[in-house]
Amino acid sequence: MTATPATFSSFTPPGSPPRKRNKAQEPSPSQDLPCINNYRGYVPPPGTTTVEAIDLPVFLSTHGERQAPFAFFRQYIGPRKPVLIRGTLPDQQWRAGTMWKDPEYLKSKAGKARVRVETRENTREEYGQGKETTMLFEEFVTEVVDKENQLLYLTTQELDIGPDDRPALMSSPLTELQGDLPLRPSLLRLLVPQNMNLWMGRSGRGEGGREGESSSGLHHDYHDNLYILLGGRKVFRLYAPSEAPNMYTLGKLRLVHGNGRLNYYGQPLTCADGREKNAVKAWEAARRLEEVARRSERESGKEGGREREEEALEAALEAVLDTELEGEEGKEGQEEEEEEDAASDQEEYPRLQAPQSGSPLPPSLPPPLPPSLPSTTFARTGKPPANFSRVDLTAPDGVDPALFPAFPRHPPLEVEVQEGEMLYLPAGWFHHVQSKGGIHMAVNYWFHPPDGEGGGGEGKDSVYMDGFWERDWQERMQGRREQEAVGGGGGNDGGSREGSGKERRGEVERDGSE
Questions:
Q1: Residue 511 pLDDT
Q2: Is 352 part of any domain?
Q3: Which domain covers residue 128, as residue numbers?
Q4: pTM passes above 0.85
């Protein structure tokens, strides 16, 4: 299958209300509902096992600095196509590629930050099944660099919540190091960042002198990923979102959006760009309340002004309460709503009922959990992460077809990312990552996945059908400027209120570990 055009016009419009059904038509609560796969992006043609690569200096020279983000969107982001980028960020703020090679620099800038670190018992174990410990960042750097400790791995950290109830873009140690990298990389400036992370560990020599390695489990992320390798080597094995129903995820897959964004039963149904269905309504109601409150102060001394503003304030408060009540009712009746929505999807997209590969559906009795699951997710939520697969790609005898009959038999795409290179990976692409080559360090940006090409955003540059994420970003940046103006720095900037709620529900949709 060839890449689709950059337009998202064929995507299911996010936020479209499901058709209402009579009770007699509704499925019973016990009915096993299949996944609805609406993926419209790139699928590797048969026999393809490599990822396209571009030379970034040549790409920038060909398209020019101003047009390069649009060209990159047309060729890769829009079609939902992974690409290896030879070169790192061209932004002036980008100094991480050189400055962070010096461990003493890292210690001087962020050494006193407390970080959570994954551990493992020995080098044969995969990260994720071990424990977690807390230490100073300078202690971690000393262990990995000076003591050559191969049993520690720095991965995603908890995000601070700001005074406006927004999760920060990043957490320590990136908060202390953020002066060395742009908040919104120019090459992907059409996308709105969701989160930034630092990854660091060490791979040594294995048995018999072979090159040692560590690996993640097979999983997908909920956001578009720009992965920038600062040291070491990483080998990614990739499966397209079209294969999602055959990936044996720990969660019960409900919907694959046109752009590859995945939803699971038991989790809030989102739009294709990751917004929860009532996020925009809640956002607009809160803004209206703030506006009415400000206007009330101005009008309070005018004749009749107090009465008018009291009425407006009451209406705004009712709108806020309505959205909160909708959220609570949505939680209480979530299972019923999920079945109704999924059944409605079946009516509208009957051609998508069969798995695209033609292979049988996964067995109802799942095989044992793989060893490479993130222990942090278990520790924080008490539940295995929905976005991880039961399939262990590191099994000595390969994938067992008796346990996983629907798992793809064709080889995955494979790409090796080297120091000084980047990988763009759209949301929903399943990936397994092996770390090689001594000390490995990377920075990644997660972006809200685009769901359109204009039509509801902030002008012609928008790639979102609704301007929610762009408006949220502008508010975030305004908050940073105000914080810096009073001498508070810009580290604890906020994220979206919708995202904050998601974090507080126990990281229901947490991206994976690389």
A1: 77
A2: yes
A3: 31-277+333-504
A4: no
